[in-house]
Amino acid sequence: MPKMKVYLVVVVLAYLASALPCLAAHWAWVEQEVAPIPWANDYDLATFMVFDQSDDKLTLITFDFQTTIVQVWKFTAPEWIMVWEGIPDIGDISPWYYFSYLANIYFDENLNSIVLWGFCMGYQFEMGYHALFKYIPGQGFTRITSHIAIDSIYVASYPHFSITFDVKRRRAVFVGGFTKWMDGQYQFITVEYDGSTLYYIPNNPDPPEAVAAFADGSCGYDPSIERVVFYGRQDTSWPLETWEYDGQRWKLIATNEGPRLNYPPIGMIYVADHSGLLALPNDWGAIESWVYRLRKWHKSTVNGQFEGRVHGLLAYDKNRRVAVFYGGLDEFVKFSNRMWELRCTKHCKPVSKPRIPEEGCDE
Q: Are 340 and 327 in contact (CB under 8 A)?
């Protein structure tokens, strides 16, 4: 073979080899066949979903407002299996006050357990109380903190707050949007939990004059930048804002960038294959998938669509490496049993740790 042809072959092969890491993965929302849960009450429920790292199971928790019964379900395809049912014994107060729409849930790596972070409004909204409840397999939920009061605050609007676990700092971070009861000024609070103690973090936004829109939104931890990220707004009259938290202060990153919302995002979960935080709009209609990566929002090109569900549930199943969307209210305002999974279908890359996409790669 002439030397020139050999040279050209080598160049082409070298180019193809260099391009292999940049092959864009193909993604699709695929409906998962799942046996329906026989809801005793399919319209007056609080529902929560989280991946339980202690047993590698996607976990669903429901609270029935009529009976105050809590149920814990584990997903083993193609069905949810109930593993506990009962009324939480949380002392001298009804579970209704803590296991409600004002609650949120996360997996605490310090405790190696699912934790429900309850929030209870005081009389005439003059005071808010926080309390945490740890899930113990076979026993249900038990309170692990005393009631912490935050004086003179009023929750601005549903759903009030979100929560995530900061892996680097080993703390759960609670973020909420509040209005001062006395002077009507918009405020927000940050509370942290290290597995034994709750810490109230003073308000310290950057820039100082910024009014953080933390009433309606969601937060998630991004290990690639080692920051907690919040996205949302105060209400429909406020701009959409993206904030990052380093453990000391919140910094405003962008305004009016990212998914357009009528309601707060369904959630923000880190998906290693996307090297970023996945967020879904919380609305009826076709769902758009957005990823927050390298401090910018990217609208993801995903095959397959599904009709949105208000107040649906979003979690990342680390065992099966899929993002899962489940439930929500259907067009009849009843809870849906349908489930979708965001799956890689082609050019999938094994990921062992958070990474920043290689320069020039369009993922």
A: no
CB atoms within 10 A of CB 209: 6
What are the beta bridge partners of residue 324? 315, 341
Sign, CA dihedral 26-318-84-159, equals negative
CA distance 241 to 213: 7
CA distance 71 to 92: 21
* Cα within 13 Å of Cα(166), Cβ side: 25
Each residue of 299-320: pLDDT tens digit? 877 766 666 667 788 899 988 8
Q: Give the separation between CA 61 and CA 88, rounded to whole angstroms.
A: 12
The Cα–Cα gap between 284 and 281 comes to: 9
CATH (one of 2.60.40.1180, 3.10.20.30, 2.120.10.80, 2.60.260.20) for 24-346: 2.120.10.80
Residues 6+ apart with CB under 8 A from 2: none
Which candidate, 236, 341, 207, 215, places its Cα nearest to that of 278? 341
Contacts 24+ apart (CB under 8 A), 352-359: 353/272, 354/223, 354/224, 354/270, 354/272, 354/275, 355/224, 355/275, 356/224, 356/275, 356/294, 357/275, 357/293, 357/294, 358/21, 358/22
pLDDT digits (tens, 9 = 90+) for 156-212: 334 457 899 999 999 999 887 554 444 455 566 788 999 998 888 876 777 766 655
User: Look-up: residue for tokens 């067009």?
Assistant: 331
**Cα separation values, 83 from 27, 47, 134, 243, Å:** 32, 16, 15, 38
